[in-house]
Amino acid sequence: MTYQVHYAHIDRMNGLRLPEEFLERIRDYEAGRAQPPVPKHASTVMLLRDRDGRLEVFMLRRVSSMAFAPGAYVFPGGGVDPRDSEYDQPGADWDAWGEAFGADARVARELVCAAVRETFEEAHVLLAGPSSDEIVADTAPFEADRLALLDRSQSLAGLLEEHGLVLRADLLRPWGHWITPTVETKRYDTRFFVAALPEGQRALDVSTEADTVVWIRPEDALDQVKAGEMFMLPPTLAMLNDLLPFGSVAEVLSHERRFTAHEPTAEIVDGVPYLVLPDEAAHQYGA
């Protein structure tokens, strides 16, 4: 994402000014000379914990060499893997997940499995247990399995079956839905989840795609973005902002959240390319 340096320059039209290189791309899309890439399904998990009476969320800073959003603070997550569809939890209401995320039951199942897999890969937190009402207390014995997930020599379904574990979809809650704008060459149809850090587990700095991790209060993260001390993409800001009314993990997880999909648009205004944001993201930049 090459326009990150312009995020401080949001104006009254709720738009982020884009580099001139986007002009031709936008014109090609508008004229039908090119078609935008189809977005890939992806899952992102906002891991939460209570600390000193305040809510905190786990974030990673992407390494500068990443093609997408280098240097951005993000939540654990990534694209759906084809083998995420191999696991089917007995009794899981995938239709309900699909209703929340605007997807069919199969895609919903893949999204939930991707959320669990990515959280384990990137934070060493495993939302699974020996039964539907238990959770793994120590993930250290599963490090070889985590590495096998990363190199795709093992699937999430294979890991769970090998260790006699059950995926704990009930520990997740749907929280948001954002689609990468058409102006991007890499696009994701991303569903955001919230989940409590399981008792006994620790979120670790293990992701090869991140150079630092932090537990931070949502309000502190937003203040640091405004001060230019942290960089985040608009969906991340919007998701953090939506945590502000809650004082604890329990309050977040008990909240009956309703949301729609948001997709910023690319427009040319007076010969200048802009990325136009939904209000809930734009106001975080001071618009």
Automatic annotation (TrEMBL):
Q: Which CDD domains match?
A: NUDIX_AcylCoAdiphos_Nudt19
Keywords, in A-Z order: Hydrolase, Magnesium, Manganese, Metal-binding
Domain of life assignment: Bacteria
Which intervals hold domain Nudix hydrolase?
39-238
Q: Which InterPro entries match?
A: NUDIX_hydrolase-like_dom_sf, NUDIX_hydrolase_dom, NUDT19
Cofactor(s) listed: Mg(2+); Mn(2+)
What's the protein called, per UniProt? Nudix hydrolase domain-containing protein
Q: Name its species.
A: Actinocorallia aurantiaca
